[in-house]
Amino acid sequence: MKNMKLCPLAVAITMSLSPLAYANETETKDADIEKITVVGSYIEGYNAHQASGASRLDLDIVDIPQSVSVITSAQLDDFQLHDINSALDTATGINVERIETDRTYYTARGFDVTNFQIDGVGLPLTNGNNHADEDTAIYERIEVIRGANGLMTGVGNPSATVNFIRKRPTAFNAFNVNASYGSWNNKRLEADANLVINDTFSARVVLLNQKKESYLDRYETDKNVAYAFLEANLSDNTSLSLSHSFISSDAKGNNWGALPLFYTDGTPTNYDVSTNTSADWSNWKVVKNNTVLELSHYFTDNWRLRATYSYKTTDEDTELFYVYGTPDKATELGLFGYASEYDLDDNHHMADVYVDGDFELFGNTHQLVFGVNYAKMSYEDTSLYDYQTGNGFPVMPPLPEWDGNTPKPTFTDGLTGSDVTQTQKSAYFTGRFNLFEGFHLIAGGRFNSWDVEGESYGVNETADDAKFIPYIGGVYEITEQFSAYASYTETFTSQTEKDINDRTLEPVTGESAEVGIKGSLFNDRLIATLAYFDVKQTNLATLDPSTAPLPPEEQRYYGSDGVKSKGFEVDVAGEIYHGWNVSLGYTDFDITTNDLTNQVANYTPSKLFKFGTTYELPFLEQLTIGANMRWQDDIFRYQTPDLAVVTTQDAYAIVDLMARYEFTDNIQLTVNANNVTDEKYLTSLYWAQGFYGAPANYNATLSWKM
Predict the structure, then answer these.
(1) 295-316: string of b/e by CB count within 10 Å (b at 16+)?
(2) b/e string for 275-287 if b means 16 or more Cβ within 10 A?
(3) pLDDT along the chain (706 residues), means of 10
(4) CA angle 268, 270, 272 (to 5 degrees)
(5) pTM of the full predicted structure?
(6) Beta-carbon neighbour count of residue 371 at 10 Å?
(7) Quick check: 234 and 205 in contact, CB under 8 A?
(8) b/e map of 656-694 (b: 16 or more CB within 10 Å)?
């Protein structure tokens, strides 16, 4: 049973069996009662059967007509994927664009990923990127639904939706502690406790502190997480929960922008991997709070109401130093720097109420979901500079000699920023109809009303749109193991640009079509998916050439086709042999754009391969070994308008290894070695600057469970 991972809180079932009654029934009262205790467990490997972020329906992954993968808790633990960036590095089709140390974009199928959810409720990221090092300690698993997610979001890009499933109270008391130490003085202490208070109340608490330095000069972080989830079972049919998470990331020596990638003669730069453009006083502090209230009520065994309200805030305070220019190859001179103080305050109100259940029609059982959603996001940010002292605009020494030593400016000049409020109101419905033996039709839609008010850095962001987003998909069971599926849905994004007649352009529409085959193999221990997708944007704002010479506020636009993406994906996850777990993903697609340089296609990897595996050695049951690898093909970026200068990142692979030894059922040691080949690579060409990924490093974690 080595491959059967016990739930951290295993379920004990006591069954009472009476002996056969004798002819005289009165004698049974004296019969001995035989008691048998059965310990139950569940498989906690790399196979997750369900994903809730694609719809409100409780569907197995094989019954969802889209490409879906799940990063399980086993994967997070095996390879110590402590932040969402390293976790999403393992997800099929997801490309993590680390443009700076504390700012990250994500892409899938050639489009930015902007839809992130927590337990199925969310709103697109502010400005489409994530700030700071967000930890995975509070999450049980991470679901990735590729393509447009018209039912659950409706807005954003037809790329993917990432749904973070939080840890919740379970049935028995438990306490887990993980202590880690690794390269660059990486120290981490994490505690996870489950408490059953009484028959009504239970709680889950996670606490974390991590302090680490970095391979990058001057860069270090201090991260703290506190999470509490209190659940009350008010009756057999009703439960209420209140939860709160606090995440604080305090970075020092963080970069803003990154390294120049070419010299004045057009040849590429090649700095040491530790080179950092930050000043020694640079800092970026991010504090995120999220409070969630949930109510669940079962009217009958088949019909349920679920209501969720969450309030999320983000507070950012930064002092940043930006390096720009093109250095001379011989002298390394030619760079300049300036500084800015950037502050952000945003808050999200999100409410979601839905009813789901089964019903009988024409002799078959069907499922139905209908609900409403409200989301409001308000954010204010400000940027300040130093125009007076000159400290904010120094001439830089050669970058290889840069030690970050520059006087800290006084930030009092050039006040600018944003004050924007976005409101979304929506109603949605979904039905899964059992039309005939082996065939299910999933059909539904979402009506979104989207309103934006405010101004951002001098640009009027006001927009007001409403649109119905359709969804249709079908799944046909070919055999007990294999099924075929097809689906179509859309998304939309408001625009503020105006056409030649001074009318605001209609929203950008993202259309996503997908067909595929899914298989549930090895007694349902492994799920495999082969998908073909065709995704495109229409009505993307494009500058009208006749207005190009005019000032920006007088320029006009027209709608045109945006990014188009066609390709296929393979996703495999589960146990292929006793004790051998695998997670495999391969993506291959082509991108075309309305940009003559096809820049998006150039800097976006069109081929991605992800592979993770662990094996429990049969001759030494306490030892598990594993490997994790991600590979991408070569990318490049035109750096000058005349296309004369090109930055290229050759294809590369990052290989990580792990080993875990279980001293007892409660104590184990996991050692991870990352980038074991010491590959040198640029983390992204999403921008015209970049920095290098981490060289070879290690991490060791001692875990104690009780």
Answers:
(1) ebbbeeeeebbbbbbbebebeb
(2) bbbbbebbbbbbb
(3) 37 32 39 39 66 73 93 96 97 96 95 90 72 93 89 80 94 96 98 96 98 98 98 96 97 96 96 97 97 96 94 96 96 94 95 94 91 93 89 88 93 94 92 93 91 88 86 95 95 84 86 96 94 93 87 85 94 94 97 85 96 95 97 96 94 98 97 98 96 98 95
(4) 165
(5) 0.91
(6) 19
(7) no
(8) bbbebebeeeeebebebbbbeeeeebbbbbbbbbbbbbb
Q: Which residue has the tokens 């309103």?
A: 451
- Give pairs for 96-100: CB < 8 Å, separation 24+: 97/683, 97/684, 97/686, 98/683, 98/684, 98/691, 98/693, 99/129, 99/258, 99/683, 99/684, 99/686, 99/687, 99/689, 99/690, 100/254, 100/255, 100/256, 100/257, 100/258, 100/691
| C-alpha–C-alpha distance, residues 182 and 619, integer Å | 29
Q: Cβ atoms within 10 A of the Cβ of 341, count?
A: 17
Residues 6+ apart with CB under 8 A from 695: 215, 273, 675, 678, 680
> Could you identify the residue written with the tokens 């007694």?
523
The residue ranges of DSSP E strands in 197-282, in sequence order, are 201-212, 220-233, 238-252
Residue 10 identity: A
Strand-pair category, 115-118 with 160-166: parallel
Residue 400: count of CB within 10 angstroms of its CB: 11
Tell me the one-letter amino acid at 555: Q
Length of the chain equals: 706
